[in-house]
Structures are given as structure tokens and as C-alpha cells.
Design brief:
This protein is mostly helical. The chain contains six helices and no strands.
Length: 95
């Protein structure tokens, strides 16, 4: 994340992340939004500011929401499976 050239190679558009998450979690809008923020924060290569602007929240809210969602993932097998499906759609590695 800290190497600019690497960041450019790994950027995934926020719109493609949102679309993939909505396809998998669209039946639960609250989870869909949290998942999109989490995946955007974790894998998009975008700054907190960019992600926050897209979702209409502040930078710290992106970080807090992402952290909370990660905790939720550890406690829910169903949620973890849904996120794994999004990873497959976006061709993300679990590194």
C-alpha cells in the first residue's frame, strides 16, 4: 500500500467493488454497505478520504467501520462465505 507504483497496479475501482458486493449481499443493504467499505479499505488501494467521499462518511468512520466489520467476519460463517464469494468475483487474493 505504501509503494506508489504497487498501489497503481492493485487499484480496483470502488464502483466494481460496490457492484460485486451488492450482487452477493444485496438482500441485506446494511451488510452490503459495511462490506463494500471494508473491501474498499482493504483492497482498493484508495485513500481513506477517497473511500469516505464515495460513501459519504469521514476518514475515521471508514477505518472504524472496516475494523468492526472485520470483527463481525470472525464471528459469522455465513458472512465470511459471502465475502469470499465477492473476493472470487473481484479476483482478490487473501494475502
Amino acid at each position: 500500500r505504501d509503494i506508489p507504483a504497487l498501489r497503481e497496479l492493485t487499484k480496483i475501482s470502488l464502483d466494481s467493488i460496490i457492484k460485486a458486493v451488492e450482487q452477493e449481499c444485496g438482500d441485506k443493504p446494511e451488510i452490503s454497505r459495511k462490506a463494500a467499505i471494508y473491501i474498499s479499505h482493504r483492497y482498493s488501494g484508495r485513500t481513506l478520504r477517497e473511500i469516505g467521499e464515495r460513501f459519504g462518511v469521514g476518514e475515521s468512520a471508514v477505518a472504524r467501520s472496516s475494523g468492526r466489520f472485520e470483527s463481525e467476519l470472525k464471528g459469522s460463517r455465513m458472512l465470511k462465505k459471502r465475502i469470499e464469494n465477492v473476493h472470487k468475483v473481484l479476483a482478490l487474493s487473501k494475502v
